[in-house]
Amino acid sequence: MDLLPNSAPLAGKLRNTLVQYHSTGDSEWRLAKKTKDATVWRKPSEEFSGYLYKAQGVVEDVTNRIVDHIRPGPYRLDWDSLMTTMDIMETFEENCCVMRYTTAGQLWNIIAPREFVDFSYTTSYKDGLLTCGISLDYGEVRPNFVRGFNHPCGWFCIPLKDYPSHSLLTGYIQTELRGMLPQSAVDTAMSSTLANFYSDLKKALKK
Question: Quick check: helix, strand or coil at residue 74?
Answer without folding.
Answer: coil
